[in-house]
Amino acid sequence: MTSTPASSCKPAAHCTIVPPYILEALAAGDEPALAARAREALRHDEQVRAARRTPTAQPTTRRAPRREDAAPAGGAAALGSGPQRTVYDAKGSQTTPGTEVRDEGQAATGDPAADEAYDGLGTTWQLWWTAYSRDSLDGKGMPLPATVHYGHDYDNAFWDGSQMVFGDGDGVIFERFTRSVDVIGHELAHGVTEHTAGLLYQGQSGALNESISDVFGVLVKQKALGQSAAEADWLVGAELLNPSVKGRALRDMRNPGTAYDDPRLGKDPQPADMAHYVDTSDDNGGVHINSGIPNRAFALAAEAIGGNAWEGAGAIWYAVLSGDGIKADCDFATFAGLTVAAAGQAHGDGSTEHSAVRSAWEQVGVLTPGAEATDASGGGSSGAGSTAGGPGGEAPGADVQVLLRRSGGFAGLVRERRVAIGELPERDAKDWQHLLSAPTLQRIAASTERTHPDAYVYSVVCDEVGCDITVQEPHLPEAIHSLFERTLSEG
Predict the structure, then answer these.
(1) Fewer Cβ neighbours under 10 Å: the N or C end of the chain?
(2) How far is residue 457's CA from residue 375's CA, in Å, rounded to a whole number?
């Protein structure tokens, strides 16, 4: 396994559809306007992730009731009666949900973003219901609200645990985020995973979490377009990139690592097999990068099975996602074994489907040819992995250096800065001195157990005071988050 240095994972977009490493690449670029927008996207995405603590969200260690156990209460709409969509307009603010502009069944507004969001939510609901008899994300007809025009030139889209949020993009790198139905499908699939397997958002289980969202995101698009596995492009976010970008999409599931190669975004860092697995502490253990491996396995299996991917490989993946065998800390090998077993159970050992699924995982190096696949629950990932060094006690001097690093986000980009406290503006220097001499960061890291898909991750290292902290953006108070963003932007 190899480790990818920060320089090879340039900043880019943020938390939802755009991997953090893309936003980080833009934020570290030499175009001030783009850099500022990318930083703002990263910041906003993390703040919204904090909103995932909602009554509809289930703890990652618990499984929500299966659809067959989710009969509606008296007076509730019948299962499968259709999506319950409401679209709101934030009007450039960072407040959700905003002003309601379209409710279920109402006519189009004429605003492309609002109408694309409405249609995309419906298209996603249709896939889950018609292909898998699942009524919305929780299997019980959960409403699907969405906010458009979030922030100013906001470069991201995300699911905050209760609703979708869409930015308009900067018009230079990213177009409006409602344009790609697979992006909408990706974010909503995080909600399905939360209500089923509850995969921990760290390491291999986190990369599986991201991959499952990519899988069902592209299946939403393929079903809407009536494309077979052979006809599909297997691209995620193809409609998001501005024509000036040297790339085809944010991710290529069939050929990971080839989606883009742009001076501002850097080169697509996704590996295509386990031989190139990226061992990193960034982005919750590289969840947006290493997802390329299971992504490719799914595309290979779907193409080998043939026909419509949502009926073939998609049904096998869904059986595992919603089944009892998968655990929250499932790793690649365990998931592979579960899908092989599910294919055999559904179609018979030695069937085309069974052989295709096993071969796909062998081609990406997760399973070894000839070895028995296991369906036992396995590790391979851990929790947030935050480590806390002790506070310095006395305020550190002006010559003390701090390494601040941001990773994660939908685009998976990385940005970092090493700076002496005395090099910062006076106000920020004092804030850093206070922060490093108090136990604030240690307490935040120690008190946060839940991780948020597509959220940014900040690492603070200061050897002089024994500080080595990793914490996700949703858990940071606004004052500390603003300090971190100012420090990165001034570099």
Answers:
(1) N
(2) 32
